[in-house]
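Here is one chain, start to finish.
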Amino acid sequence: MPPLTSLPDRSTLVAQARDSIARGSKSFALASKLFDRQTRERAWLLYAWCRKCDDIADGQDHGGTMRGVADGQARLSTIRVLTSAALRGDPTGDPAFDGFGLVMRECAIPERYAHDLIEGFALDAREWRPRSEADMLRYCYHVAGTVGCMMAILMGVDPDDEATLDRACDLGLAFQLANIARDISEDEAADRCYLPEEWLVEMDIPPGEHMKPWVRPRLAILARRLADMAAAYEESARHGTGVLPPRSAWAVLAAAGIYGDIAREVARRGEHAWDHRVTTPKSDKLGWVLRAGLQVPGRAHRWPAATFRPATLWTRPRS
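Its structure:
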């Protein structure tokens, strides 16, 4: 097969990215419709790369049940090689990576965020587990906070606006904390655990026993802790919406509410949170779209950017 010499045209990459988000996340697909066309297309391109990297790392197809992989380092190498090629502007033969390179160039997104995200996959490839709460939050930064930063720049935030990027990172942390709370059972089935070892010791939960029926009441306490943390980061993230264009702020506020409901529902269900996968009903999603639209005009007053960011919140690493 001769080497690839040119990238697919933009419309083809956008169409494939649109299909990817429609298959991979109904929540994010809905929120993305609130953006203006250019921002929406760029968000799709970024999402498609994130989704493809995740699928390569975990042996999935647009999410779904994880299966154990025996070649984690080889998969990580594939992600690194294709991402580096995309960042150079070289055709990769994979629309998710080609589209990612395109959006990174269009928006002048610093490459360090892409490399930081891949470090999250590297942690999983090493079968890493967090020892402390700070370890868990650092992992959340790598796999989700980085995406928040890239999305903010994609929406027009200056890459040097550290305060607003902190807020964008906070939203990614909120999303990932909700994921951790919801997916404890699924992660355990894939021999993963993102609950800090110190938390498990504190609750007197033996290693590898956190999904046993007799532990569920204690596990529910930890899930509520995750939900409370997610709520704090979600609230902090809202203080960054005042600098965003109205339609971008609308999408961010809607996504925050929709995804925040996952953590809230996990906490509400208590020890039954993992009997069935928690999702946000479509009616509730549409309710957040409406509520977020009403919040947009007064967002700068309700969530002023100058509001002090609580010192208790973890701060992302600087370049």
